[in-house]
Write a structure and sequence with these properties.
Layout: E1 8-9, E2 14-21, E3 27-31, E4 34-38, E5 46-54, E6 57-67, H1 78-82, H2 95-112, E7 135-143, E8 146-153, E9 156-162, H3 171-182, E10 193-200, E11 205-210, H4 218-224, E12 228-234, E13 241-245, H5 261-276, E14 282-286, H6 292-299, E15 303-308, H7 311-320, E16 326-329, H8 332-339, E17 344-347, H9 357-366, E18 374-379, H10 382-390, E19 395-403, E20 413-420
Binding site for S-adenosyl-L-methionine: 258, 287, 308, 348
Active site: 380
Protein name: (Uracil-5)-methyltransferase
Length: 424
Amino acid sequence: MSGGRVAREQPDAVEVTIDSIAAGGDGVGRAGGVVVFAPRTAPGDVVRARLSMEGRLARARVERIVTPSTLRVEPPCPHYVEDRCGGCQIQHLSLDAQRGAKRRIVDDALRRLARRDANVDAVQSAGEPWRYRRKLTLALRRRGGRWIAGLHAFDAPGLVFALRDCPITDERVVAVWREVLAASEHLPNDAAELRGAVRLLDEGAAFALEGGARWPGARRFFDAVTRVVALWWTPERGRRLLLLDRRADDVPGASFVQVNPAVSERLRDDLVRAVLSHGPTSAIDGYAGAGDTALRLAAAGVRVTAIEVDDEAVRFARGRLPDGSVALGGTVEARLGDALPADVVIVNPPRGGLHSRVPELLEHAASAPDGPRALFYVSCNPATLARDLARLPSWSLERVTPYDMFPQTAHVETVCELRPARGS
């Protein structure tokens, strides 16, 4: 919950019973008819808290838990409690409770925002709920004459604490970050704040730095951080640059490496199987990335048109796709009209969802004689998913399957299968 108004804390503490989990991970309850958002709480908790009114809603500062919920577990990460780390939101819930909450978040968004009644599947998963992340982005701050790398406190966004470990992140990523800090004397010295991201690649890791106007020590940094095979930099006034690269193979940029490969592969397997169940001869893969899904469909004999805005990913996809399938550079809103018709359309937009032009094109296609048999929408944001589905009244929602891509956090990935209403 967030708002633009200045919140005023009420003088008296009140008891609040938590009923559910909101999309951002806060617990939700009521006090005196007011909806209350309480971070780090669980359904069934009774808490004593001071409320800060933000419009018609309230945010709780929990003073103590009067009655703990049976859904609670002890968070294994010390930063979650000691430093109030904002990287995870629901580490204090059991895994079953986390997945139940995510299913309800998706269902609530579809019913409340999209006005769609959907029988949402149970949340699907794969692999382990810990050490799954192959990417870790941290804030870099100067403190006491040296750099620290860490995350923000959930209740004080300006506060960065020094991260010792991150139990949801692959230990190899954490090891690279330790190398980065050991070589931090070679980071840009004209900035007090930077932002860095480590991603595991098939061999080694990529490091991407944001900030600073000049980086004279980039070569010395690269030589010192031996696990890093590709070094990217986005200066404070400029575009992202690949500064140094010792990769042997032609592979896409680190942006297209899956954060949770086990769940990503499970989702892709399910998606490809569902697409092929419609017997398509042609398909459009919108927001295709490096073409992993497009390649799987093409290998099954489908003629695929992949659309992707990132030039490097387009180049890589073109080198992988067989004859008969193509990768188009540009935005989906600019390219979809030319790519249609197709038997199946897949869209997998970023968190902001679809450009308004895309639902317009899909609405027109739904009523066309040669229109798609099915539309698959892969979403990482239930709110924008619901908004976009509300813009697609000519499409019938057939199936909704959430995936637990990021255990311990409130984030949920969702795959929706839709068919044109004319054929339902």
